Structures are given as C-alpha cells and as structure tokens.
Here is the input.
Amino acid sequence: MHASSSRRGSGLTLRRRERIAGVLFVLPDLLGLALFAFLPMLLALGIGFFTVDGFDSYRFIGMANYRRMVHDQLFLQSQRVTPEYVAALAPSLYLSGLGLALLVQRQSRLSGLLRTMFFMPQMVSLVVVAIIWQVLLVDKLGIVSQGLSLFSVANLSLLGDPRFALASLVVISVWFLMGFYMLIFLGGLQDIPREYYEAARMDGATPVKSLFYITLPLLKPTSFFVLLVSAVAAVAGSQAFDLVYVTTKGGPANSTSFAIYYIYQEAFQYSEFGYASAMATTLVVMLMAMTLLLFALTHGGRFEQGQ
Amino acid sequence: MFVTAFKPQADVFSLGVTPSHLTFDNLVYVFTQVDFLRSLFNTFFVSAVVTAVALLLHSMAGYALARLRFPGREVIFLGMFSTFLISLPVIIVPLFILVKSLGLLDSYGGLINPSIFNAFGIFLLRQFYLSFPRELEEAALMDGASFWRIYTSIILPLSRPILAALAILLFLANWNSFLWPLTVTSSKNLWVVQVAIVSFQGQYSGSWNYVVAASSVVTIPTMVLFLLFQHSIMESIKTSGLK
Here is the structure.
C-alpha cells in the first residue's frame, strides 16, 4: 500500500490513482448534497433579506423580515409550541425507549415478537398514522372518546380542544417513535458485558440495584444520544409536520402551530417566501446551537464510554 | 389499534373491534372512482429510482470515505455528516425555490432528485466498509486491478446484506414520504399515494371508510416488506445509532 510498491501500467503511482479514485467516487454524492442540502441553507439566509411577490420578483428589504417576527403574534406562538413539544417528547421517548428495551432485551420468542410489534409503527407512513389516530380520536365517535365516556369524561375533544391537542400529538409521536429508540437502547444494552450482572448477582445485588448501578451508568452515552437526537428531530419537525398537516392544521386556536408548520403556511399559502425564509433561518441557528452542544457534550460526536 | 384501523369497513365507528360484515366496496371505490392506481405507480416508480441511484452513489461514497486516502476526506465526511441535522421542513422553502429555478417543479425529476441525497445511507455504508480487513484489496491492487474494478468485483458483492437492508429502508422512507411530494407536485397525475390519501381526506371529510381503505392499500406492502426483512432492518438501525 505504499508508493514504493506501486508503479503500474498507466504511469501513475498507486498513491495518485488512489487519490483520483477517492475524489471521483465521492463526487456525485458530494455535489448532490451540496446542491440539495447546503445550498438551500445558504439560500434561506439570503432570501430572508428579501420580499418576494407572486411574480418571483425579489426586493431587498434588509432586516425588515426579522423585525416583523418580533411583533408577529403567530410566530411568537409557534416559538412557544415547539419547545413545549420538545420538552414533553424527548423525556417521554427516553423513558419509553429504555423501558421497552429492558422489557424485550432477553433472547426469547416472545421478546422477538414484542420487538417487532413495537417497531412496526415506524414502517407506517406518518400520514396513515395520523389518519388512524384521528379515526380513534374523532369527537364522540372515536374509540378513545367512547372509552373515555365510560369514565364519564364525556365530550372530550382530544384534537379539537386547545388544552389537549398538543398533548395528543405528543402521545401519537411517542407511539410512533418509541420502537426506534427501543432499538437504539437495545444496541446500547448489548454492549454491556454480561459478567457485570453475574458478578453483581453473586454479591447479592437485586435486579433493581443492577439497573441503577450497572445498566444506567453504562448506558449514559446511549441516553445522551437519544435525548439529543430526539430533541433535534422534534425541533426540526421531521415527524411533527406530517402529523399536524393531517390532523390539526396548526389549530385549534394555534395550539399546535409548530414553527415549521407556520413557516410552511406563510410560504405556500400566502407566498411570503422571504418572510418564511427568515423564520427558517432562525430555526437553522437554533438547530446548529443544539448540534454544537451535542458535539461539545460528546467530545466530537463520538459516544464513548466514560470520560 | 392496528386491527381496527386496517379493516376496510363501511361503518368505521359504531362497531368497535369487530365489523358487522366485511365489504370490498371501499376498495373498489378507491380504485375505480379515483385514479389511485396512477398514484401507486408514481410512488413505486419514484421510490424505486431513488433507491437504486442512492444505493449506487452512497456505496461509492461510503467506500471512498472508508478505504481510500485522498485530500479533504475528513472534511468532506464531516460536511456530509452535518447534513444529518438539516431536516426537510427546515429547508423546504429555499429547496422549493431552487427546484423551481432548475425547472423541475411538478415533474418526476423534481420528485426524485432531491430525495436521493441523504447522509444516513453514506454514513451506514462507510461504517460497514471500515470493518473490512485491509488485505482485502491489497492482493487485487498487486495484480494491477483498478479501484473501480475492486469496487465492483470485491466491495459490492461483500456488501450485499447491508445494501439489501438499506434498500428496504430507503424504499420505505420514499414510499412514506409526504411533505416533499406535496410541495413539489401540483398536477394530479404526479400525485404519490400519501398526497392522494390526504386529498381524499379533504375531499370526503367524514367518509373515513374510503380514507381508511386507501391507507390500508398503501400500508400493506410496507408491512409485508417489513415482516420479510425485519431482522436485517432492525439490526442495521440498532448499529447505526452509536458508533
């Protein structure tokens, strides 16, 4: 593998051929990502300083879009909804993912079956997930609503009441995502040497003690990963958008108007592309801050054990 | 929950878990009264093309990033890795403007091209190729094989299992995608199934039977795929989380 052993027919050294091949192999994906991921980020930054009218003409307006945000009640509302969703979702996914992983970690037929069952929702599109849950939650007629009325909580509108709509979306998101995080935790659990548990048992430790003194400390990197990734995903709206679009459309009373949904509305319903881009830029800044935090806390993206 | 929702039945609510009778009317309606077949074809076509092209490009990039030494490799990998955090909803507005200025709005090209490039596949394959022993290519290099030949005749055959798992993940992700097709297409004959379902929902509000029937048609293939390949799908996700 060294230059000395490598003069070949073409006249290029092996080292040079390797360089050329490396660049050529990586080039198509690199160009594609540059065009369809990086360029849009830069564009968002740029377009945020313009106002765009229906005929695609751009007029430079400086910081006006950013000043508008500060006074836009709907934008401010969306800036409250997103953190609320994150604050509810990330811990719920941590607990449910870890709980399910502990439940199904044993190698048995039943565990395998349960794993499949819990992971299954991941394979369904969010559109269909949203529709299933809407059918379940429909006012008065849905199964959940009917079930609740047995406990004399009649006329509860879970998606139609500003007090419950966001919470309902959190529940749906957890149901959809927990199987994914279960798998991540299973991966983490697999890496814990069995001997630790055996040694602990010899010393008379109860399963609860093993959980708190072996499992949880050794799962720290995984837990970090789960909390931060789920928080970033919740802000970035990968799941929330589809769910909101199908179920609540941001309502009732804007209680589920996520930043990403409000941005989409401004752009594609009101053709406010400039304003929407400016708002998207603030979101990108937030996500970058979260990612930097993730990098800082995990020593450059590596999730090693210990310090 | 699942069972009830997937039963195409006329009276969705009143019956609870067991339907009074099973009816095929909803399904027949979905296929005859609206052009759902066309949407199914569009979805299949787009997902298949994206999956095939993505597998080729990602395995090439993953191979280069894992095993070939060239200037800028670490920077390129970090750059690609950082696109993980760029989710579609965040860049949807500029992406739309970009695709519009490329003249790809409302076309298969507009549906397919932006969906190909995704850091997850590159990352997964790079991780996989890092585990290969170094001697693997050395003999071939001694014999004067080109890197392209090594890639096609050594690397690709060895990555069949992971490519299969990734293919299924990519296909399903595209089959299930909604936001981008919703944004980039406007004419009905380019609709993908997820968009078609949502438009049903808007058109026949209250006619849950049609919406649920269409949803079942769309979901059953993904369930079958998943059940057939569940082991490799779940393994590849388990290992992708931390490394």
Summary: The longest helix of chain B spans residues 208-240. Chain B touches chain A through 86 residues (CB under 8 Å). The CA atoms of residues 75 and 81 of chain B lie 10 Å apart.
